[in-house]
Records
---
Amino acid sequence: MPVILALTQAHDNRWALGPEGLFTIADGVLTAVPQPDAQPACCYHDGERLFVGGATHGLAYTTPDGGWQAGWLDGVTAPVVCLAGDPDQQHSGVLLAGTAGGGVLRTTNRGRHWSVCNFGLFDFDVLALAWAPVQPAALWPPVQVVFAGALGGVYRSPNGGRGWKQVATTTAPVLTLAVAPDFHTSGVVLAGTEGGGLWRAADGGYTFAPVPGAPQVVNALLARPDGWLLSDAERIWRSADGLTWTATDQPPALTFLATSDGVLAGGMDGVYWVDEHRIA
Amino acid sequence: MVTLADMLAPTLGPTGGPVLNFDAARRKVEVLDDAATTLRRILGLGSPDLDVGAMLLRSTVWRLEQQVGDGGATAVVLLRALVDEGMRQITAGANAMRLNDGIRRGAAVAVASLYTQSQPVTGERSLAAVARTVMQDDDLAAVLGELSYLLGADGHLQIESYVAPYLERQYLGGAHYGAEINSMYFYSEPERKRTVLTAPAVALLDKPLTEATHAVALLEAAVATGRKALLIFAPDIAGAALNVLVANHMQPEEKRKLAILAVKPKAVGDERRFALQDLAAMTGAAVLGELGARTAQSARAEDLGAAQRVEFGDKNLVLTMEGARRSVIQTQIADLSSRLAHLPYDDEERPVLTRRLAALTGGIGILKIGAYHQPARDLRRAQAERAWKVLSAVQRGGVVAGGGAALLHCQAAVLAAADQEIETDCALGMRVLAQALTAPQRQILTNGGVAAPAVYLHQLAELGAPATYDVTTATVVDAQQRGLLDAADVVAAVLQAAASGATMLLSTDTIVYHRTPQQSLTP
């Protein structure tokens, strides 16, 4: 089975991506589909287009005729390693892309043109991106919070990625981020690192602190309304509050995808459904 | 003084509106919403006796505005309360000089107490809440809060005005320098007149580069660094040197070893020297030529610096430094920050230092604001400038309860100090100050239509910090939770300015009138 690094979905379709290519997922079966890049690293579907980021061509998206179109990347040649769409992306058309060496790219026209948005970034290897849910209209001031995980810490943007501020300095690269679905009331954000443990913020992401007792290597994180999932190199862990973690007997994952059918995990052996009964 | 204080007191607090000033000579109406500018428009009250006090008040408030950007009306109310009560005590037999000493010492105790109430600000929400207390424009306050959060206390903000209602912000990352490209061949995107270099080597020269041998030496040094691009920043590049660089740059991509960008700075004199100095710090390059130990001809790989990205377009060079250099330039950042902290807000050197600091710390912010009419545009711009000063103060000194409550909460500390004081008139001065500390909150309650202000003053004093009175909801609230905040530095400056102005008025015995008063451009 292929190694799966990224999962995405739109409508009833799901895609998995790894070093061995791009696949559609149907009934747990992976079917290879044409891909735009020899070394793909991440994928994201905005409901209209499938985006694939990689090393050779940076970033490409699907066209209505079934082909691929490369995005204009503002002179950045670094590989695109992560993608994240604004929760209100259908209206705003805003997506962010993290690159290994070029910082953050931002598009406001669904991927045709990307601009470098590195204001406040001091670390240009951006390995993870996570948006906070859309802020309720009653709250003031209006903010669009998004987090970026980099080699040396976590950055927070209050304005949808136009500018960044470092909010945590970690001893290891931040590989994954997860924002609580009730972020605007609880303010909880988790950042998983490669060897530096799990970091947690409970104040809207202004200050992070290490979580004692959590695994040191965190490859994947997922925030759900009823709790959190984490995967290290050995197994999946669960937590109700992001502070206290319990190991499960589920195999490890490199990425999670919350779907209407449950949680899909991608890892070294393809994709599998996380057994909700076995982790509950 | 009393006439002006009476005029400004109703503008204190969220219920006060702007002041319209009709300039009869130019038949123009001006919208003013800060005490300092309002006072500045008053050139005299028609009587020399009245003018002395009025001009002292005007000067005190204007200096305060220049220093911290806000708090003029509060200072006026506080100053008047101090003078009223101080005059009463002096008339009753107190020694004016000892009373003044008590007021000054009481102010010092109050400032110390103020900073114990101060809470640091952590995010754009609190900063926006503070900005909202300076202006009645929620949208602008929200944008300023965000800008302040991302740019920091010493951040460089440019304000651009537009002729239609507009509000937007832009963040320009990296260090920006006005520059001209030495040859059109260096454009990597000719149709956009733009060049982007990724991870280039950087050569800094303080003398023109004209000799081919010098250009070759630079190219060899750049190739030796292992980088694929080279930025040359020199006063001029011409002649044989330019030919060599263009010839190398124009080679087919598969054969080309280096992508080259050569630019000359627009700045001259000290500004160019500072630019070279800052670029050297950011890139780790040695300045080749007169300032440095070596010339371009003897350049070695270690004389060249490096950048994460260089972008040239629209006569502007933007250099983003490598993340690792950040720790190396901390001393320079600290030095510039410290120099800025000791400069008055209206010092001419301040914008230069702020620009240099912005280059070293990562960039500048641009606030784009507009309105249909010139008075409204001017008002919005003035509000933004004042709020920006206040937000800088907030990031340095934290926030305290707004609405005059923070001063009220200092009262207990001042009274305790007065009880400890053995010199009677000095203790009296402290009590005068303690009593005056209630005046701003009392005035806000009165302006808000509260029938019995004393009841709420007592309640607030009982609750202590951070309680304050929210005029819009007519309730006593937690200022931190409700976002009714003032900058601690601003409130401290208000207190000191009012105490200074009051002691000057209380200690003045004789006034000398000049037949032809000295003219001054500043109030």
---
Amino acid sequence: MSQPSETNSDSAVAAINPREMAISLRNLRVTYGRFEAVKGISLDIPHGEVFGFIGPNGAGKSSTFRVLATLQPKFQGQALICGLDVLRQAQKVRDVMGFVPDFFGVYEDLTSLEYLHFFAAAYRIPTEKRKSTIDDVLTLTEMTHKAHSQVDSLSRGMKQRLALARVLLHDPKVLLLDEPSSGLDPRARIEMRELLKALRELGKTILISSHILSELSQLCTRIGIIELGQLVAQGSLDDIYRRLQVMRVVHVRVENANPELFQRVQRIPGVESVEQQVDRWAIRLHEDQLTIADLHQSLVDVKARLTMFQPEAMDMETAFMKLTEGKTT
Amino acid sequence: MSLRLFPELPLLRRELTELAARRRTWVLRSLAGLLLIGLASWSVVRVLYSVIGMMSAPIDFPLQALGIGAEIFPHMALLLFYAVQLLMPSLICGSITIEKERNTLGTLFVTRLSPLTIVLEKLGSRILPMLTFIILTFPVLAWVYTLGGIDHRLLLATLWFLIWECVLYASIGLVCSAWYSTTVGAFIASYVLTGVLYTLTTVVRLRLPLPFPIWQELIDRLSNQPVFAGFGGAGGMNAVEGLSHLFWAVWPAALASAVLILLARRFLVTRAEVSRSSILLKVFRALDSFFRDVNQWTTGGRMVLQERSTLPDCDPVAWRERSKKSLGKPHYLLRLLLVLQFPVLFVCVLAYTSNSIDGVLPLLWLLWIITAMVIVVKAATLISSERTRETLDALLSTPITNAEVLRQKISGMRRMLVMLSIPILTVHFSRILRQGNLSLYSRQMMVDQVSWLAAYFVLSLLSTWVLMQLIAWFALRLGARASTQARSFLITLVALGLWFAASAIVLPVGISLFAHFTDSGARYQDMDDFFNDGLFQRGDPLMGNVWSVAADVPGQALLLACRPDGSIIATQILMRTSTEVWNTRRTSVGLYVLRSRYTASESLLLLILVTGMQWGFYRLLRRHTCRRSARLLGRVDESVLQSQGVA
């Protein structure tokens, strides 16, 4: 079931000064020929926030990342990073932003140290500062012991760490991480999450996309859910859960189930519907009118002898499934 | 279960559908069709007018032209045979390698298609498009047929041979495609094998039982005029002696094709998972190993050039190209230079001792072909290799400007260009030595000679460098937008061929036509006069009129500068002319297509102008490429937006 976005209202957007935001998108549209990949996304991410970008494959996440990373010359709308326009101030944007794409191409002929020196030179870091800067980022990403290893020989997890080390070289304010945990084994994923938490502690603004929703829930201060090029929801995790819980489902099993009791339950104020399933009833309720605890009390009041009372779990995966319809392009 | 009259051929169907769905198929097909029709028409017109020109009386009655189809037809047939040899390898070389590159070959193996079926359907999927190219020339063929003199059996026999030519060359390409892991490797190998076959059967005229006789026979038949020309007239019936003769005439080609197809079937399976290592890298590794062994054996392992580990300073892209790529490292380049230089020195010494001033000329052209190929392979894939390895986005998210990325990429090739220029300059130097030795007659002559030879060497050095830079930027410009290395390489190669064809054929023809319709061509009374006197009867069919129109040095310099090989020709002119300087007389320079007379100073001026113009082209190309760098790399460039007035 798809829910309309409520946080994306014009009034809310108008109240925010986009120049003060770490990342600001206004009515972003990206088209490839006749295909519209991004259909008018508006987004504001304040400094220091970790914003999770969630969406199925082909939803428009990577196109949005490419716009912000100054790699998409043709788009409509406005995109600002730290108040800098990605089109007109692209060079300045590259100084304040670090981008990790959703794939990790390697310069197979370089060692990790040479790789970082290569990008340190590309980021115009003064020669005398390079060694200390590279030592720092290697320490931060726990890559010091791999400094002289060929990049090609590193595991995927190590490569992703190296990619993070690369974008930290010029100490950017904003990090754009397009699926940094993709393809990593569980240990590498957990290590990556811890590393990202460390970066959050350093005050970096992070825009991160991932398919592993539980990970984002532990890391992100806000999330945005994108489908078919449109943001279907954005806000804090609590906001989104609350919005979704308006139509909460509670599964109950009643020992004395009968048609009369079924009708009495349907008449409880705040209950939207009751669906009789094989071994249980699925009660849909408006949680703003009837809380879970009140429903339990009401069921007891109508003489229902409960053997099971199970509110449907509301986690990020459920929220994602509720907000999106699984449509892909 | 229903019985099918024809097998379903799913792979063939898929391949043809895929080919039909690609826009570039239609673009290429249209271009190739236009080229074929154009060349066929040109061939027809050329022969028609030369035949008419040979007639004692002018044609005033159309029926007099009847029967000259027999004169024209062999030329057209030859053109079609060459077209097959030229196009077939490029059509088929990617048929199997593309499955390997996309990792879809395994998917085909798990279907019920047998390896032989896969090979045959792949073969069919490329032969059919080739046949469509041939069909495109049918309108011209039909017109030639109406001129008379062509027996319908001759027509059918030619088509029969053409089909077998397609099968034979497709089989060669298919084996290469099955053997190699990349399309580029298969492409190069296909053309090398085609070239070898051509050399053995046409140039060397080697007669072997398989697979050459069919090819030999075809070329013999088509190139020996009496076979075809006589066929339309009396006594030509021995050319095609019926169906049985046609059948037996193609059996070597059929047998060779069958063997090649079976080989392709075998390689398809045994080399399905072959690693995608670079051929160049393999060559380098083999050379590396060889030279290490030689060094160990001769000096006990002492190194002249020690490879030092360095870190980038302010030009990281160029640094990587110089210190981390095989074609950038000094010790690799030195070894490659030694491999090239030894045969070059050998030929130069041979030419020097045999008093042959032009003995090294073919070597010079061969070296230029090798040089151009290496530069194209390297420069065209500079950006696409980053794209294929998915490293471009990371690079482009740094503050290096787009133009700087391109400039540093080319700058990283500098060592390689220096290495490639050494054998070419060695050839020039050997010619200087040879000529210096020839003419030490007096002090004044020696002064003249030394100054001319110095000028020759300096100008050849400059022109070599300029031409290398021009080719490098040309290849970079064209290859930068391609998504794969194979595509960038092929695009550049085709463009280079078109550039050559355009400057060597289209431009002279255009000038001739221009001359005809302007004052300089006013002496021609009609089209017959134009063709017979203006275009064909100047010793060279194409260039005759051109040199009369652009007889002055600047005009000819412009014509030469437009050719990719213009500065090489101009260098040859200078050398030829300089041999005559100390003989103090004007000379006639007859190199290739050149018909004009030059003095030594004119030839010097010509080379200066050609080099200068090509330098100008190179600077323009470089500037334009840097300006368009944002578009080539697919990245935001604020300077472009500012120049477009986006505030």
